[in-house]
Specification:
This protein is mainly beta. It is built from 4 helices and 30 strands. Strands 4, 5, 6, 7, 8, 9, 10, 11, 12 and 13 form a 10-stranded antiparallel β-sheet that branches. Strand 11 and strand 12 form a beta hairpin. Helix 1 crosses helix 3.
Length: about 450
Amino acid sequence: MISNFDEDEALLLLNDITITDDELSDFELSDIEKDSMCKNIINKVKTKKSNKKKLALAASLALILCASIPLSNRDAFGSMISRLVNIPDVGNVMVVNNGLSLKKSEIQNDVTLNTMYIDNKKIIITLTIKSPHNYYYSNYFIKDEHGNTYKLDVVDSSAQSDINITTYKAEYDGDVKSANKYFLSVMGNKAEFSLTSSDFTNVEANHTFYSATNGITTLNVTSVSRDKDILKVAYYVNDINKNSSTIPSFNIGTFKEVEYAEKKGYKYLYNSTVDNPIFKLYDESGNSDFGHSSQSHLTFENESLFNLKKLKGKKLKLTLPSVVYTIGYFTPSNGINIDLPVPESGKLLLNKAGDYNGFKYKIIGIERLSKNTIALDYNFINDPSSKLQIFDMRFNSATVCSSDIETDPSGYLRSELTSRTPIGTTFNLNEILISYASVGPFEINIDLDKVK
């Protein structure tokens, strides 16, 4: 069912419906529970001054809430209960219970504690350290006033333009006892942080998010906030395909990096395409700005910043042409297993069709170039009507020590593979890497009058 109702009608109707927390307390509902909840939503509208349009909209919203069917393929809006929260420099956190976040950064000597998130199942910190030493493999320990100690392991890092400045993200997963004081030492005793409960603020889950979907991939905006002339958009992407990994960077770098590059005469790749998706924010006059990363680079996958000085008016549209994924890896365990005949010399026509997890290809032919090197001619095959479009495919083998790929003038791909050992009469392809896009465009309307 696709609805013809707009956002305002949907939100006004939701104001008419009271849904209790227990109705949305579980992420996984049985079919009986979903049916009951949908009927409850519609019955609550019937008790108001309902009309046919209102009841039809109620049915659409019931489907959205209970079956995750979008309001429309281009611009789906909803007001839902969510435990997902975006915390600057931490990213998206699923709040378990009594989540706390550091109100502001703390600085000691050459160390900045950018943020700290803590609940009864997790601790996350990000630290920016000015030092020539590598602290990626360090362990960080947080102690409380009761003597409980938690070891945090570094899970991510990002070097700033100055190679001696690096931001580290460290996490602890496990039971966390309630406390009022926390202590953290970094670089021996050069930087010591002593934090009390007054340094933290309660973290509340988002109750509203905006989403856009193509029926396969969904872009979810968890919050939109404004800091003077900077608009901050927090988001995450989810997909019905569980076999792929997202390439999450939809930004072009920080404001500082772009400014520095332009002063030096370098050109950032501003062209936002299906195979190079970048967030772009438009106003009604056609002015636009690209998404920029936060300074820490640790939240680039879930936060984009925009310069509002480049835009006019209050009505804005966030656009993303696609979401890019990879499937398969250059390891035999995630690859394929194809034995190809190899000629003693010259070329051999094969026209061998194949399929890897639904992605089709054809191996056109194989050519012997030397006793250790062959050339593989092939093509990937896209369904023009599909929302999933391949833009790159690579074959390889565990025996290969070097490879090179180019597009042949005839239009197919040609890959030269050199083996560590002489190649006999057969060659085994057991590795594959496919890059593809889930094509949008994903578009979300943003009204600045509603942004705090």
